[in-house]
Structure formats: structure tokens, C-alpha cells
Amino acid sequence: MKKSELYGRQLCLTPREAATLPADVQKITGIQVSGTRIQCMRCGEFLNPREAQLPNNQYYCYACLNLGRNSTLTSLYHIPEPNDFPQRPTCSWQGQLTVQQRTCAQRVRENFEHRHRHLLWAVTGAGKTEMLFPGLTWALQRGLRCALASPRVDVCLELAPRLQAAFVDAEIALLHGRNPAPYRYCQLTICTTHQLLRFRHAFDVLIIDEVDAFPFAANPRLYYAVNQAVKPHGALLYLTATPSQELLRQVRRGDLEISYLPLRFHQHLLPMIKVTLQPHWWQVIKRGQLPNRLRRQLARYQQTQQRFLLFVPQVAQLAAVQAAIQRALPALRGLTVHATDPDRLAKVQQMRDQRVQFLITTTILERGVTFPGIDVIVLGADDPLFSTAALVQIAGRVGRSRERPTGLVWFLAASHARTIKRAQRQIRLVNRKGRRLRDAMPVVSTIDSK
Fold first, then answer.
1. Which domains does the chain have, with CATH numbers?
2. How far apart are CA 131 and CA 307, in angstroms?
3. How far is CA 180 from CA 5, 42, 174, in A?
4. Which of its termini does the chain have fewer beta carbons within 10 Å around, N or C?
């Protein structure tokens, strides 16, 4: 193992595996046992002694087992981050930020410089990634180690080529559970938030994209991973279009600074949600047919070659919806995709490459992926599995390109559920703020977080 593979990392090794490590490596207790209190020092989980029990009064962590077994028979090995980066990458991006984007980008850079914790709340399609470039350029030029983490592997796969194109001479590590490539010590890392559990005080600048998304939002171990991966005096930036109430409470307490941008980069407003009541859509689908209004809309897509995403609440519904479409409109070419689909990454790439016209999917594609010029249809939009934030994010897939800044966002539902009404209200509110900004205000940086 190269010494650099332990820089800012914490790897779980047995004494035999650790025998050849450099002399300056630090050994950290993997599982801390204090009476009946047992805590994993890698993921922070407090363990149930019965569930964590091994023979001979030994224990292991079942919470982060997918990263390799951490137990009282192993230790975590670590070398403090030396920032050993002889090269200083430069930004080769030639695009132009809008006035509003430049203001937010300046705030981001300032918070990197002062090592603050910061929330960038910007509507879907506002250009959050591009707003990071000035701050990342500042950090990379000073030899700081940076990471951009997301709960979703699809987001990481979309971010990696964009950041590589913006920083052509930078070596970028892409880390996720499905990547077979060996680990490389790089100044800039793009990874899933689960991968942060392998780091310890590594990053001077840590950016968490889609901070309100599953599984990050509901997983205290991933918050533990973030606080462990960033240096004690490092900068932390959260990115989202739909902040949780907890994030906004942190803003009100003064624990987080905030920047807010309610307008997309092309200065157009968010497409509004159109709702059609279709109480028995699933019964119709199960008979192998399409509801009439849906069939007519898809027939128009077949004729115009308009690309689209079709969302359904449950994985079990994907095959039936696809079969009904193929039966009614065989010329339409699309695929189904869901979170545990073994071909998920390849299918999403086919949609990116425009080799298929549509995807039928679940909330796994609600955020973080961009397919320019698409429309969106949601079947069963009133289902409890679609939260208000999810519906807003789904609507945000539409109108993201300058060439087609509008499009159809169509919800078919049995009722005007509260989640749908809240999503419509949130988009109207953002559009009202965006219109006011576009028409009267040259810049925007901070808001009242109420």
C-alpha cells in the first residue's frame, strides 16, 4: 500500500495487514467499548451489544459493514493530511456567470476563505455547479484538498466530467461503490456521501450536493461522516434547491450562513405543474392499456420525438407501465430504471446519449441529473412516496437548457393531494421571487430564512 493512500483516510485493517505500513501511521481504535456502551469510531453508530456480538467478547459494527468489517479485532489506520499537491490546477471553464450567479459565487469563495459553514439555496437549474468554480479555483490554487460529495451516484457520474472539463489539468478521484478503479490520492475528489466514512480530517473544503436527498437526509451516520471527513477548521458548503426545515433552523440559529438564488441561469422561471385527475390510472395500466389522455400525449411524443421522463411511485409498477406503452405505441423506445437496477448507470447513460427517447423511473432520478429539453410526467403524483420536495425536484428536470427553457410538467393523480398543492405553491413562490429579481434587483445574496 502506498503511503499516500492513507493521507486523510482511515482504513480498517487487521494487525497482519497493517504490519507493512509506514512507521508514522496513526492507529485508531475501531470499536470503542465502555461497559455496555459500544460505538463504532468509523461511522459513529452506537451498537446493540447482542447484535454486534462476536465470539470471545469481541464486537463488530453492523451499520457500516458494506465498507468492510470494523471490529474490536481490527483498528483504523490513518496518516494526517499533508496537502502534498505540487501542481496547482487552474480553471479552464470559459463560460460566463450571470450577475446573480457571480454574487452567490463570491459568497461561496469568501466562505471557503474564512472556513465557514454555508448553505447555497438555489432553484433547480440555477447553475449551482458553475457557481462553485471561482471558490474551487481559489482553493486548488492554494494547495487545499477539496471534495464534492452527493448522496446519489448518478449525481457523481454527472458531476465528474463537468468538473474535469472545468479543471482540465486537475487529477480527480471518482469514488462510489460501483467503481472498480483503485483509489488514488488526488487534490479534488468526487464521491458518494457513504465514501466519506473512509476519510478523516482530509478536506479543507467539503461540498455536499443535494443535501436534502435520501439517503443523506435521514442518516445520522452520514452527517457523522461529513463532520469527520472535513478538517476541524475546514469549510463546509451545502447545496440544495429544497432545504429541509432542519437546515433552515440552523440558518436561523446562526450556525449556517446562507445565499439564495431563485432564478435559473437562463433567467427563465420554473415551469408550472399541470395536474389532471386520473383516479383509476393504475387499474387501466394493469389491464395493459393507457389512460386516454396519457396515450394521446405519448402519441404526440412519438410523432415529434420529444424526449421525456415518466415517474411512477413504485418499482413494481415499472414493468406494467412499460408493457402498456409498448402495446399502445410500439415505436416509442424507452427503458425502465430504479435504484437497485444492476444496469442503472448504463441505462441513464443511454438517455444522456439520446439513444432512447424516454425512461420510466422512480424517485431515484428526481434530482441531480440533467437531460436537456425533456418533459416530465408523473403517474400517481398523489402517492405518499412522492414528498413535496421530490415533486419540486421532479418538476425541476424540465426547462434546464437555454435552447428549451420551458416544457411540460404533468402530474396525473387521484386527488389534489397536500404534497401536490405545496409543490405548486413552492414553485409559485420561487417564481414570484425570481420575477422580482429579474425585473428589479441586479443581485441577490442573502435572504430572511423564514
1. 3-78 (no CATH), 99-261 (3.40.50.300), 274-423 (3.40.50.300)
2. 28
3. 16, 22, 10
4. C
Cα separation, 207 vs 287, in Å, equals 47
Residue with grid cell 454527472, as numbered in its chain: 158
Per-residue pLDDT of the chain (450 residues; tens, 9 = 90+): 889 999 999 999 988 889 889 888 999 999 999 988 999 999 999 999 999 999 999 999 999 999 999 999 999 999 999 999 999 999 999 999 999 999 999 999 999 999 999 999 999 999 999 999 999 999 999 999 999 999 999 999 999 999 999 999 999 999 998 888 999 999 999 999 999 999 999 999 999 999 988 778 878 999 999 999 999 999 999 999 999 888 999 999 999 999 999 999 999 999 999 999 999 999 999 999 999 999 999 999 999 999 999 999 999 999 999 999 999 999 999 999 999 999 999 999 999 999 999 999 999 999 878 999 999 999 999 999 999 999 999 999 999 999 999 999 999 999 999 999 999 999 999 999 999 888 865 544 444 433
SS3 at position 303: helix
Q: Are 364 and 341 in contact (CB under 8 A)?
A: no
- Nearest CA among 75, 72, 66, 71 for reference residue 11: 75
Q: Give the C-alpha separation, 345 to 12, whole Å.
A: 29
DSSP 313-336: S-GGGHHHHHHHHHHH-TT--EEE
Alpha-carbon gap, residue 29 to 73, rounded angstroms: 10
For residue 405, the one-letter residue type is P
The C-alpha atoms of residue 404 and residue 342 are separated, in whole angstroms, by 32
Question: Is the Cβ–Cβ distance between 69 and 12 less than 8 Å?
Answer: yes
Q: What is the pTM of this model?
A: 0.90
Give me the residue label for grid cell 434587483: 441
Strand partners, 309: 359, 376
